[in-house]
Amino acid sequence: MLSKAEKEKGMDLAFAQAELAQAQNEVPIGAVILDQNGKLIGAGYNRRELDGDATQHAEMIAIREACKKLNSWRLNDCSLFVTLEPCPMCAGAIINSRLANVFYGAFDPKAGAAGSTIDLFSVEKFNHHPQVYGGLYKEHASQLLKDFFRQIRQKQKQAKTTDNGGKNS
């Protein structure tokens, strides 16, 4: 089991990745993978809009990077830290890459696959079941997302007002 300091390090690094996404007007979701010694081996942030690719989730990018670094598709004894509960696609990649632990911040009531809408990690027939720990720094993770979407709505409202010649409709 990871120490409290290692968990804090992992989540801090994931939040730093989320900030990189936000700086590029992407949904601020970040993920990192640490090996069993606490060494960073993979990092990613949401890039769906930038790349026009639905698979460019933070977890997917971090998993690809970690696999390259280890020269293996197996990420045994490694831990994923992500700011938002993984979706079904990412949960599948987590299972297939054999990650030992998943730590996430905010719960995702719309697409969360670690218990919020479905729990893919508990499906008995799957051949791998990572240990999952949700809600780490959930207030910070949730606030990051709320602030981002509030800014998007404000920009859309301003654009609509400008498009209407300053008249509200």
UniProtKB/TrEMBL annotation:
InterPro entries: APOBEC/CMP_deaminase_Zn-bd (IPR016192), CMP_dCMP_dom (IPR002125), Cytidine_deaminase-like (IPR016193), MafB19-deam (IPR058535), tRNA_aden_deaminase (IPR028883). Pfam families: MafB19-deam. This is tRNA-specific adenosine deaminase. Belongs to the cytidine and deoxycytidylate deaminase family. ADAT2 subfamily. Zn(2+) binds at H57, C87, C90. It catalyses: adenosine(34) in tRNA + H2O + H(+) = inosine(34) in tRNA + NH4(+). Residues 5-152 form the CMP/dCMP-type deaminase domain. The active site is at E59. Transmembrane segments: none annotated. Its EC number is 3.5.4.33. Binds 1 zinc ion per subunit. GO terms for molecular function: tRNA-specific adenosine-34 deaminase activity; zinc ion binding. It comes from the Bacteria. Its cofactor is Zn(2+). Catalyzes the deamination of adenosine to inosine at the wobble position 34 of tRNA(Arg2). It comes from Lactobacillus rodentium. GO terms for biological process: tRNA wobble adenosine to inosine editing.
